[in-house]
Design brief:
- The protein is α/β, with parallel strands linked by helices.
- Strands 2-1-3-8-7-4-5-6 form an 8-stranded parallel beta sheet, sandwiched between helices.
- Strand 1, helix 2 and strand 2 form a beta-alpha-beta unit.
Amino acid sequence: MAIKIVFGLSLLAAASQLIFGYPATGVSYGDHELRAQRPIVKAEPERPKGDGEVTADAVFSGIGTFAHLPFAQCWANGTADFDIAFIGAPFDTGTSYRPGARFGPAGIRDGSRRLNLYGGYNVPMDVNPFSDWAKIVDCGDIAVTPYDNKFAIDQIQFGHQELLHRKPATATSKFPRLITLGGDHTITLPLLRSIHSAYGPISVIHFDSHLDTWKPKVFGGAKSDQAAVNHGTYFWHASQEGLIKKGTSIHAGIRTTLSGPSDYENDGNAGFDIVEARDIDTIGTAGIIERIREVVGENPVYLSIDIDVLDPAFAPATGTPETGGWSTRELRRIIRGLEGIKLVGADIVEVATPYDTNAQVTAIAAADIMFEVMSLMVKKPLDDLE
């Protein structure tokens, strides 16, 4: 009799999942995975703004901002305010292999236009960043010269810094937050210089297939002072300048070849811990999330994402592709797992749009990743940050 009852309950649970599309009981995996079966009778929940309103309308209209966000002339208008702003840094003359990331900001924006096609509600994170508390705008691109790297790097720093020191529109934090669309990874050096002007030395989470802490004499040979600053050395310079909070910063997704073991020693001296791409095979996404959170702790964090952290199957349009990377799904899961960290700013880099597929695989992946980053920022205001 007991066997029949257990068998009957199993059939009931299976039928529930088959018919209704969700399990009969809740299954927990972190905070973001399977939801429990909805009860037949329940109190009406508090619904997010926009729930049940018109979606999928006129998605091809308007100017090409990130996800159809309002455009603000932030540099021309000194009174323009925001809590979170997207900016572009179209610079790619620090790359060592394939150029084209100067077209990254435009490509990512184009890949983002369907992000709020169905309303923009982020189901795993339970937030609609487009209609929550934050005023979010797209400021367009920093004016960046293609003729002089030193001058361009200064333009990026001071263009970012001007907006960083604006008073936030609604938040009670001291500074707004900026999400930068690159651009090759050299741009992270001037961005960290700007961040330092507001926060001092900062903890860094760096998603990439490469270390980017090489000494200039190793990466490129430092043929000149300006050649010494490129997308493989910028973190070395940042460490030398005291921009990075050593011991609380971490790379994730690393799988590059090296000049030798001394590159790891140099990386440690620069202040970074490492999670290798292959670690996902043994500790999974949950283990990677745990390791990252353990390293950065409660510190303010800057997030830098090189699209080549993804395998070229998921992001072929990049300057220095490396096989053996993570999938888009895995990276998005890991980023969502960082919910609650004190994220003060972010960038995504090395999207070399001319190498993308006709289906915009890389641009769409980059846009979706920054949707997760934007959601992190909205879910964690910085009101408690000193």
